[in-house]
Write a structure and sequence with these properties.
alpha+beta, 3-stranded antiparallel beta sheet
């Protein structure tokens, strides 16, 4: 984390104002960098009150740390304790910190026809994406009988697993959920212009001193952006790709986005990007499109209610919705197909 540096900058600004003996009230661009969820989270906001910004950023850091303690998929957390309890096959109490995430996961699992499947935590771990230990025997066994969110039964605030291999992992939704909560907190505290950037997945609000926020979409094959977009107002831009957590296994690249139909890393797509008003929807939809966006982009867009999406194939081909193409500046001269 770069917390100390950020707070020194704020303190120096306040001292300069005091020395001048009554500065005009003006807006400041304030940035904070935090490391949570295994990624760099950058908070950028515009405010005239640096003390207020300092208080807000401290609270955001505290909340992100609490979210990690609640939702982490393999270190000690509310989620890992729930997963262990579910192995009994008996009804167990679901912590309040997980109920909405589970409810949203079940909802989007149904809307995506099962492509979004947070019940695959044990399979993700067997492929080595939790602690680096690969268990090919276990992965093959789970792939023959894959659990999904329908295997989790609820009775009020208690749940029971009907599948021995069910293990929840919110890797495809927790970032969007956390970004949304932080955005709500900033909104509620009078911050109208901000960007929350969680490793390239972001939520914007307002603008940057009267101009739109200018952001890029990661090139999945090399450093840099394949497209740029100007955003003004409230938007969520999320990308799911095979470049963040991957390793070479045999002659193929294995990555953490698992196709629930095969039990293996999704094939055909290198990245998928979604622009939406809701960060949870953008996160989930990008994950689903990363699994089968080349063939099912139109059907997924309809079922999930999204209009703006871009999918990059592993052959460097771009599939983009017409409405999104009209908003983007696409850089590479790759084959591009626009769909309605």
């Amino acid at each position: 984390m770069h917390r100390a540096a950020s707070h020194r900058l704020i303190a120096l600004s306040l001292l300069a104002c005091a020395a001048l003996g009554g500065c005009e009230r003006r807006s400041h661009l304030v940035e904070q960098h935090l490391l949570e969820f295994g990624t760099l989270i950058e908070i950028t906001l515009i405010t005239a009150d640096l003390n207020h910004a300092d208080v807000l950023l401290r609270e955001i850091e505290s909340r992100l740390r609490a979210y990690r303690d609640q939702w982490h998929a393999w270190e000690d957390s509310d989620l890992t304790r729930l997963n262990r309890a579910l192995q009994s096959g008996k009804p167990v109490a679901v912590p309040a910190s997980l109920r909405e995430l589970i409810s949203l996961s079940r909802y989007y699992h149904a809307l995506s026809d099962g492509l979004f499947n947070p019940a695959l935590g044990r399979l993700v771990a067997a492929h080595g994406f939790h602690d680096g230990e690969v268990d090919t025997v276990l992965a093959a066994a789970i792939a023959r009988d894959i659990p999904d969110m329908r295997d989790l039964e609820f009775d009020g605030e208690r749940a029971r697993s009907r599948h021995a291999q069910l293990q929840l992992d919110f890797g495809g939704i927790a970032k969007g959920y956390a970004v949304g909560l932080i955005g709500d907190y900033l909104d509620a505290n009078g911050i109208g212009d901000y960007v929350i950037n969680a490793g390239g997945d972001l939520q914007t609000a307002g603008n940057r001193f009267g101009r739109p926020w200018r952001v890029g979409i990661q090139n999945p094959f090399a450093p840099g952006a394949i497209a740029r977009i100007h955003l003004e107002g409230r938007h969520s831009l999320f990308t799911s790709g095979n470049y963040a957590r991957r390793f070479r296994r045999g002659g193929e690249i294995a990555h953490h986005i698992i196709d629930p139909r095969s039990g293996e890393s999704a094939r055909g797509q290198s990245s998928a990007t979604v622009l939406a008003n809701d960060p949870v929807l953008a996160d989930v939809a990008a994950t689903a499109l990363m699994i089968d966006g080349q063939r099912k982009a139109h059907d997924l867009a309809l079922s999930l209610g999204i209009e703006d999406f871009l999918v990059v194939s592993d052959r460097r081909e771009i599939l983009v919705s017409r409405s999104f193409a009209e908003k983007l500046e696409i850089s590479p001269q790759w084959s591009t197909k626009i769909v309605n």
